[in-house]
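hiii, so i know i said id send this last week but things got crazy w the move. better late than never?? heres the sequnce for the chain we talked about at the cafe, plus the structure i predicted for it. fair warning i was half asleep when i ran it
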Amino acid sequence: MRTSDGVYLAVVEFGGDGPPVLLLHGLMGRATTWWPQTRWLTRHGRVLAVDARGHGRSQAAGPWTTARMAADAAEVIEQAGAGPAVVIGHSMGGLHGLVLAAQRPDLVRALVVEDMAVDFRDATGRNLDDARAWFGAVPQPFPSLAAVRQAFGHPRPEFGEYMAECVEERADGYHLLTRVGDAVQIAAEWAAVDHWAAVGAVRCPTLLLEAEQSVAPVGHMVELARRIPGAWHVRVPGTGHLVHAGAPAAYRATVERFLAGLP
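okay and structure toks below
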């Protein structure tokens, strides 16, 4: 599909009937990383996932702001033409979903946010230089998919498996689908801007899933739940940032319990 500012976005249809369920991946991810969850989510509606701009098979074109990328998600729902969606987002995708729910409540029936923060400004001891250093240390090209898994899979093997789906093979080896410079620009906004105002505007049913080893500041997702009327906060024991990949059974049980209670 083409966005209103002319950027091509790759949208993946996973099947299912009924109201749309839109899946939004995290930074450096892609739509197809949701495939294991789509096997059961298709019982709850028509499941779509989108490669965010600069990710997967979508065009690498800014602006790289949260507002623009949330607007992209809104346009996916509008072009699907099937009414308000259940929006499920991980990390960056959770932030985009939350801002979408705040700005376009007509398009969001319910919201699931996985391990996300709306304010990273100095709260975690990280800064943009840290992000540049981390991305700059990624050893591209990778000689094999096993090397991708090894580079990203410690201490959480599920992250290595996840990232092995987010590369493409070229003549000299495997490269990340997302350009490092683009990822740094996206992260730069998180180091400078907070989205607490959007939190206060969310009115749809909301599930907040937090990893035990979360990337969010301590207490942050509890505070999100306090500010969103009726929000349900669940901390999943034994998990890292990729809750849906690291604890798929617990993730499914929690999300399906939430979906079963929707009006």
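btw Residues 85 and 250 are 23 Å apart (CA to CA). thought thatd interest u
miss u guys!!
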